[in-house]
Amino acid sequence: MSRVIIRQFSQTGIHLRPGYSTVHPVHHLVKVKKANLKPGLSELLIPNDDITSVKYRPTEIDQDRLYEHYRHTLKPDLMLNLYKHDSETIPANTKQSWGVDSPYKLYRPLKKPLGSIRTRASIKPVTDRNIPEITGVTVHSFNKKALVEPWLDITTRLQVATITNVKPKQLFAKTNLVQWKLRKGKPVGGKVDLVGRDMNQFLTTLVELVLPRIRTFKGIKSTSGDKKGNITFGLDNEDIQFFPEIEAFQDLYPNMNGLHVTIKTSASNDEEARTLLSAYGFPFT
């Protein structure tokens, strides 16, 4: 049984690098009809997450410190702070019809929300069943220099993979823009969606090791939310060097590139999301 190494601060940089190839395979995957296998190969029908399977790989060998902190400390505190007696659901601020009193109003586009351009979902009162929590983190990196030198796109995705421990998804340009030398279909960067243990490890590294060392960082702007409980902020190329996975191996990257971090929460509005992230240690201005 092979052992899967989980990222920890006490490990060396060699063990922190995700092991995969950035070059796409040239062979084709062969589909096997497992229903037609011989009885001697019946062990291949066992799911991979079963301990008796030959492909079983343990993924959790220790406790998640950030998850345990949220479960035993932050969750009761958020319930005490956000709960309001006799609170009611605030209806959604969505687009509405112009009415049916005139035939000219039947096929008109829906009206925009009153006093706002963006639509908003219903805000439900916080109870013990819908306490806000972080559901995922999206890390996006766009390298402008890769438009001129395509090989720099590989280093951009390697940088994201080294920081997040997840293989990034290749991003391509969707439109043509002459000023930026942007051409539709050209690779421009990478993106990863973090959940579970990788997400908590990234947040721990960000709060405890990276943000405190950035002298120009005064906090996340209070206007960075999308009114749906998601908070977005950016890190410059000079801030990336404070990640422990990058700090000792800066010579391996031809150019450092910034990141856009989007923290997705289950909160109904930005106020609850900021309260949740403040409990994790993120400062706001």
Count of helix runs:
6
Assign the CATH class of the domain at 134-280: Alpha Beta
Radius of gyration (Å): 24 Å
SSE order in H/E notation?
HHEHEEHEHEH
Determine the CATH topology of the domain at 134-280: 50s Ribosomal Protein L5, Chain: A
CATH architecture of the domain at 134-280: 2-Layer Sandwich
Stretches with pLDDT under 50, minimum 5 residues: 1-5, 9-16
Largest sheet: 5 strands, antiparallel
Mean pLDDT: 83
- In total, the number of strands is 5
Share of residues in helices: 10-25%
Oligomer status: single chain
Strand content: 5-15%
- End-to-end separation in angstroms reads 49 Å
Structural class: alpha+beta
Shape: globular
CATH superfamily of the domain at 134-280: Ribosomal protein L5
Tell me the strand order in the biggest sheet.
2-3-1-5-4
Explain this structure to me?
This protein is of the alpha+beta class and 285 residues long. Among the domains are: 90-123, no CATH class; 134-280, 50s Ribosomal Protein L5, Chain: A. Helix content is 23%, strand content 12%. The chain has 6 helices and 5 strands. It has helices at 13-16, 65-82, 152-164, 196-210, 244-247, 270-280, and strands at 134-142, 169-172, 187-194, 230-235, 259-265. Strands 2-3-1-5-4 form a 5-stranded antiparallel sheet. The protein starts with 12 loop residues before the first helix and ends in a 5-residue tail after the last helix.
Task: Give the helices and strands, then pairings.
Blueprint: H1 13-16, H2 65-82, E1 134-142, H3 152-164, E2 169-172, E3 187-194, H4 196-210, E4 230-235, H5 244-247, E5 259-265, H6 270-280
Antiparallel strand pairs: 1-3, 1-5, 2-3, 4-5
Helix pairs in contact: 2-6
